Amino acid sequence: MNFEYKEYTLRKVEAKDAQELLKITNDDEIMKYYGESGAHIKDEEEALIEINWNISQFDHHAGMWVITKKTADEYIGDIGFNKYIKAHNKVEVGYKLKKEYWGEGIITNFLNQLLNYGFTELNYNRIEALVDVNNFASKRVLLKNGFELEGVLRDYEFEYGHYVDLEMYSIIKRTFNR
Predict the structure, then answer these.
(1) Which residues touch 65 (CB under 8 Å, ≥6 apart)?
(2) Total structural domains within the chain
(3) Which of 40, 116, 51, 44 is nearest to 78 (CA)?
(4) Alpha carbon of 174 to those of 61, 87, 123, 142: distances in Å?
(5) pLDDT digit string (tens) for 37-51?
(6) What is the pLDDT of residues 94-143, one digit of tens each?
(7) The domain that contains 102 carries what CATH number?
(8) Antiparallel, parallel or unpaired: β 8-12 and 90-97
(9) Full-model pTM
């Protein structure tokens, strides 16, 4: 499968992405809504552990792709599926992008392509996303791609000394096919 948008493309994550993954996960503005458990990889060894886990997900009906420029194989972000549950044929989607690329439609367009891939090639029935109630940009991306808000999970996670509410968004195969 080939994923492209303007001058950007997706490829599977590789060990060579460790330094850029380390940088992006230590940018407080980018990781503001990821919570303590999903942010701040502390060193290259930890970044490699994360990369190897992401690579292994491709064997489990999921996986994370790196967003790069076509002209330079430089990691500028990532997008993909994780937490696949075979019994329910559902998966969670996640993404992050360097700040200088925000607002260009990159995530919105690649998410649309991955939804198509997920529903047609991987035969998912449900794709969901958990979003901090204050992450308005991420919510816009999901709504543009046909996700629906299912509800608010109150005090769902404990992050940075307080509880936060998360919103559950989802899109299901029969809705996507319409």
Answers:
(1) 3, 10, 11, 12, 13, 78, 79, 80, 110, 114
(2) 1
(3) 51
(4) 20, 18, 11, 17
(5) 555 688 889 899 989
(6) 999 999 999 999 999 999 999 999 999 999 999 999 999 999 999 999 99
(7) 3.40.630.30
(8) unpaired
(9) 0.91
Rounded CA-CA distance 32/49 in Å is 22
**Residue 1 structure tokens:** 């499968």
Helix orientation angle between 136-144 and 106-120, rounded to the nearest 10 degrees: 50
Beta-carbon contacts of 33 under 8 Å, excluding residues fewer than 6 positions away, are 131, 132, 134, 135, 138
- Alpha-carbon span 173 to 163, nearest angstrom: 32
What's the rounded Cα separation, in Å, for the pair 148 and 84?
A: 19
CA distance 149 to 129: 10
- Residue 22: closest CA among 35, 37, 39, 41: 41
Structural domain including 75 reads 4-177
